[in-house]
Every structure is written in C-alpha cells, then in structure tokens.
C-alpha cells in the first residue's frame, strides 16, 4: 500500500473493528455509503443503532463505487453450467425438502422465505455448479412461499435437463429480476404477514422486501442441511475410502522421490496429489487449495504455496499437507503431518500431544444437548499439559458435495459454537494442531460423523452421542513418542491403522509401491 493508506489489522491490541471505527473515530453526523449487497441485514441493523447517537447514518448505494473505479478491467463473473444431483447421491428429493421447509415456515408463522445462501439454494434444489472455486455452487436466489416457489438463475447456465429437474416444484426466472420481484412480493403481502430471511442475508434483500415485513433468524435450511441422511452418510464413507487410496499413492510417491534425491517444490507436490485424486470415481474437483508446506511454512495455518516462489520440500523438515476433494457422494478434508528424515525430540513430543488430543475427540462420548464449544478443551488437554496450544478451531462442519466449511455447528473456543448442539448425522472435522513459528507445524485432521452411542446407563434420559471417523489415512508412526502415548491410546492407533489397511488396500492392488507403503505405515506399534 502507498502512503495514502493506514493499515489496521483487526484483532490486534488497540485496533478497532471496522464497525467501531465508523462510530468511534469518524466525525459526528457522517453519511456512510455502503453497498447493501455486501453487508448482512443483521450487521446493518446493529451498526445503525451504534451510529444513531452520533447523528450518523448508513446510505445504501445503487452501485458499488469500487466497481466503478475498477471498470472494464474487472474480470467477468463466472457462469458455469448447472447440473442436477441425482437422488441416489442426495438421498432426498427436492419435493421432500420443500415440504419440510414449508412445514417450518408454518411453525414460524411466516408467509415465505427468501433463500440467499448459495449452498442452501444448491442443497434445496438438488443442483450443483462451479461458479466459485472449490465450492460446487452457482449464483442464484430462491423465494419459497407456502404454495409456490421461484428460483432466480442466469439463463446461460440452465439447459433442458435442469429445467426438467425443476419444472414440477419451481418457476425459473431471470437472475437479474430478483430484486424487483422481491419488492413486488413485499408490497403485495399484508402488514400481518411476514417473510423469513436468514441471519446472513444481505441488507439489499431485506430492503427490497421491506424491513417492516422481514423476520431475521437462522435459516431452517442451515439446520436441515447440517444433519446428513443415511445416503449422504454412506457417501461420506465411500468417498473417503477412495480418497484414502489417492493419499496413500501420493505419500508413497513423495517419500520415494525424496529418498531418491528429487527436488520437489511444495506446489509441484500439491499438483501430484491433485493428479492422483483426479483419477478417482465421482471426482469433481478439489475442495480447497491444498496446503502443502515444509518446515517453517507449516507453521502458517492457512499457507498456500505459490508456484513461483514456494519452498523446496526437505527430508529433514516436517511436512504438513492439508487437502481435500469434492465427489458426487461426499466432500473430503484431511491433514497429515510427516517427517521423511529423522525427527527431533521436540517435534515427536509435540506431534504426540496433538495425536492425544485427536484421539480424545475421536473417542469422546457425550450427552445430547452438548455443543462443540463445551468439548473443545478435550482436544487441547494434552497440549496444555506441556504448555502448548493452537490458535484455530478444533472442528468445522462439512457439506455433502458442498462447501467444505459448513455451519452452524463446529468445535472451538468461539462462543458462537455454543449456540448449536451437536446432533446425530452432523459431520465435523477433528483437527487439533501445534505451530512453532518459524520452525514447523503439526495438524492431524479426520472427518467424523456424530452418531448415537450406546452407554450402560442413560442419566437424565438424554441419550448419548459419539463420533465415527470416516477419513482413512495412516498417522505417521515415526513421529509418535511411545513414552508419552498411553496404552489405551496405542490400542486406538493400532485399531485405526488396521481399519485403514483393511479398507484401503483392496484399492491399491495395481500399485505395489503404494500398497507396500500402506502396509508398512499401518504396522502395529
């Protein structure tokens, strides 16, 4: 940035949030122009309340001023073909999902709902796209009433197959007509009627419908989408088995390359992993940019290797790889940490502490009505005993052939995770870590499914839950400090490795190198 700008990094001491800056630092009686499509109605309401005592106000602009400056050099919006997702993968028809949504609208005593989150539209309509990298969604809005449903799509993305898929449940209208339609619909209902919008819906949508007509609440689609049906759960299992085979091929190849003295950059390695995944059945793309990181780069939590400048992978450094794929039957997200040389004692101890936290979550049994906020400390207990910790959540929800990060639930220290209880059918990651700045990074991540758990007793008649892991990839035995690991934890690791070998080895019959590697890496401790 040049001298016209001052950088304020939100979250650092004495640095205000941008909202605080507007009502604490600006002069009074300010008029603040905003693009109403880029701020949620909920945040706008809160900000308006904070600005009012200062005589300041938000002004909704018809056009984005930055876009005007950007002009013709701004890249065109991606508009890729939209495709139906067969019910053999989704597990439920669009008609069934619409019926459940309308039942929820009746319970909430609202007339309609404007659906604006792209993954919610995709899930409701059993459609998928590729307008946003790594996320199988498309640009769309939907308006669902008690007796009708309209979806707003770009005509160039819709073919006859999609039209036939939607024709019995939805009217298809032009994407650009949505705001005019919302205005007309909002003005057509009585003062006693109301329209539900999710708590992430934009100010532009709320303004079009009329603020006095909308009810802002968490979207019922968010909750319905988070609980996977039996078909989706089986899809998660099967996609992770195939994904595990690609991971075995990749790590076996990488080890061989490094042992042979090959020079490989982090980016080149990531490309090879993508190549292995691309050959799998039902593969549709990666679920996020692969984090392929060696040594100090592994301590950068959301590191992304630049093909032009990234580091060369070294045998004498820890290698952290966080990657995932999108498949018609599921979404994967897995992190493994390796050392292809001789690890230092402090690396082994830190790795083992992370592993203990991972096992603690995997084996946890907890009563229904428990949130991810409550159980997060189990993942950190072993690290805390050594005075270690990590600065990210322990787990995030995962979409079914949808966004790899999906709410409303998660496991972490953010108080927002206490708003949603973990429920049977939810998918969530289990990914404790440790990061020594400038030295190395460690993370172990599996996807787990919340499942009912039988217990000898049932105190309070609550019912109890546990986790089923579906990620299948060896955990590096060379980095385990056996003096730190308990007997019970060793039993868990051996059982996990036995499961990995039994489920993955049949897929590697034609790859002797990967099969041999898998057999060695899953040998009992």
TrEMBL record:
Residues 235-451 form the Peptidase M24 domain. It comes from the Eukaryota. Residues 463-524 form the Peptidase M24 C-terminal domain. One of its GO terms (cellular component) is cytoplasm. Its cofactor is Mn(2+). The keyword Nucleotide-binding does not apply. GO terms for molecular function: metal ion binding; metalloaminopeptidase activity. Keywords: Aminopeptidase, Hydrolase, Manganese, Metal-binding, Protease. Belongs to the peptidase M24B family. This is Creatinase/aminopeptidase. It comes from Sistotremastrum suecicum HHB10207 ss-3. The lineage of its organism: Eukaryota, Fungi, Dikarya, Basidiomycota, Agaricomycotina.
């Amino acid at each position: 940035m040049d001298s016209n700008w001052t950088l304020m990094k939100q979250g650092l001491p004495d640095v205000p949030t941008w909202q605080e800056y507007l009502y604490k630092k600006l002069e009074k009686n300010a008029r603040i122009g905003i693009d109403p499509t880029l701020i949620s109605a909920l945040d706008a309401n809160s900000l308006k309340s904070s600005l009012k005592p200062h005589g300041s106000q938000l002004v909704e602009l018809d056009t984005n001023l930055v876009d005007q400056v950007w002009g013709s050099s701004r890249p065109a919006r991606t508009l890729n073909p939209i495709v139906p997702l067969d019910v053999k993968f989704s597990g439920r028809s669009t008609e069934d999902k619409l019926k459940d949504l309308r039942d929820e609208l009746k319970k909430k005593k609202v007339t309609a709902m404007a659906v604006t989150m792209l993954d919610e539209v995709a899930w409701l309509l059993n459609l998928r796209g590729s307008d946003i990298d790594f996320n199988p969604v498309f640009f769309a809005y939907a308006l669902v009433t008690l007796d009708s449903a309209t979806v707003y799509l770009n005509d160039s993305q819709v073919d006859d197959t999609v039209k036939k898929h939607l024709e019995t449940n939805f009217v298809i209208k032009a994407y650009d007509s949505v705001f005019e339609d919302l205005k007309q619909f909002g003005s057509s209902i009585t003062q006693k009627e109301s329209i539900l919008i999710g708590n992430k819906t934009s100010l532009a949508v709320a303004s079009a419908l009329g603020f006095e007509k909308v009810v802002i609440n968490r979207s019922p689609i968010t909750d319905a989408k988070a609980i996977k049906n039996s078909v989706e759960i089986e899809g998660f299992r099967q996609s992770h088995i195939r994904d595990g085979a690609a991971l075995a091929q990749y790590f076996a190849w990488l080890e061989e390359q490094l042992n042979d003295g090959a020079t490989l950059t982090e980016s080149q390695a990531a490309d090879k992993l993508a190549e292995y995944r691309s050959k799998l059945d039902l593969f549709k793309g990666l679920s996020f940019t692969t984090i392929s990181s060696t040594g100090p780069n592994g301590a950068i939590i959301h590191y992304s290797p630049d093909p032009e400048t990234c580091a060369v992978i070294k045998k004498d450094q820890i290698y952290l790889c966080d990657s995932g794929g999108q498949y018609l039957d599921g979404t994967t997200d897995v992190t493994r940490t390796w050392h292809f040389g001789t690890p230092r004692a402090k690396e082994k101890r830190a790795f083992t502490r992370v592993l203990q936290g991972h096992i603690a979550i995997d084996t946890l049994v907890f009563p229904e009505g428990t949130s991810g906020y409550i159980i997060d400390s189990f993942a950190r207990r072993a690290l805390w005993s050594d005075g270690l910790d990590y600065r990210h959540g322990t787990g995030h929800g995962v979409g079914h052939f949808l966004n790899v990060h999906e709410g409303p639930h998660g496991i972490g220290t953010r108080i927002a995770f206490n708003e949603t209880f973990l429920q049977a059918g939810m998918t969530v990651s289990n990914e404790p870590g440790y990061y020594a700045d400038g030295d190395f990074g460690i993370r172990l991540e599996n996807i787990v499914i919340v499942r009912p758990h039988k217990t000898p007793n049932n105190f309070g008649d609550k019912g109890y839950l546990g986790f089923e892991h579906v990620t299948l990839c060896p955990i590096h035995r060379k980095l385990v400090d056996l003096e730190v690991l308990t007997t019970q934890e060793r039993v868990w690791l051996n059982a996990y490795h036995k499961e990995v070998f039994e489920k993955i080895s049949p897929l590697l019959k034609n790859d002797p190198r990967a099969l041999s590697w898998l057999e060695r890496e899953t040998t009992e401790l």
